[in-house]
């Protein structure tokens, strides 16, 4: 059965481009178009698509408002198109927080100079989120923020699910974690926390990091697949929301307890030692490296710098980035946790780690931050 797609954009030219690319995939069918957010809401209710592609800036009703309303009336996987600017990053993060699953650059040259590559990536992204999320009649819990603020943090969350719809799974108590007895939480065991994620990661990281108290005893490295123009804005928003400190990593930043360093987009994040202190090391990605930043590379650097003392966490994301790095961490005696399938937007990265037998603990998203807080 084909995945049914609704295309939303105020530009008729752009809608036609998206339609032509999607229709070229035998597994996809564009069932409708909308020129603004208000039309999108009506079309979602009438056509019941499996996936929606959504622009942000539109007349009558913008994409962010439309995403929030669609999540209220009929939760549906939404892929945003965004400009790769600081302002575009802020708007995209708001859309993801409202319930969108993922985003792509609206200027296709930012994806690739090869038109066929752009088409294949768009098709693959729509297929992936449609199969994983849309085929079940309801969105997965990790795509929507919790309905109430996290008790560990008193600051206001980015947004909350609007009233009227059934409470998402994220607003209910988290299911019991499936835990391997070989890796209990023991304060003092670890010297560094490294978290890697991709699709669904911005909201997942928010949910985890807001549960950590200001006194969290470990330095934290965050690896989120994200464009270079987005990471500064994302770090700023996390810093406003969390009790711990969060900043975009700069070369030479000290790894300090209670501070999270977010890998800048387009670069690799490593670790170096100076004067007996661990520091962030930024370096250029090799041309053949798909992910910039890469979870595998960050895990490998952590295994070298802190053998046996790393706690690595792999959250929602497409692909398998992080699996080989997790293998190296395990070889040095470090610990690896992964998010469970039920709460992952895309169960690719955590699945690769779990299926390889590298996960010491498999946890639902809301349990990850709670378990990390026990390290205090």
Short structural description:
The chain has 376 residues and is of the alpha/beta class. It is 33% helix and 20% strand. The chain folds into two domains: 3-139, 3-Layer(aba) Sandwich (Rossmann fold); 183-373, Rossmann fold (3-Layer(aba) Sandwich), CATH 3.40.50.
CATH level 3 topology of the largest domain: Rossmann fold
CATH class of the largest domain: Alpha Beta
Considering DSSP H and I runs of 4 or more, what fraction of the residues is helical?
Answer: 25-40%
Q: What count of helical segments does DSSP give?
A: 11
Which class do the helix and strand fractions yield? alpha/beta
| H and E order | EHEHEHEHEHEEHEHEEEEHEHEHEH
What's the count of strands?
15
Largest β-sheet summary:
8 strands, mixed
How confident overall, as mean pLDDT? 87
The assigned CATH architecture of the largest domain is 3-Layer(aba) Sandwich
Please indicate the percent range of residues in DSSP E strands (runs of 2 or more). 15-25%
Radius of gyration: 20 Å
Strand order of the largest sheet: 6-15-14-13-7-8-10-9
Q: How far is it from the N-terminal to the C-terminal residue, by CA?
A: 50 Å
Given as residue ranges, the uncertain stretches (5+ residues, pLDDT < 50) are 134-181
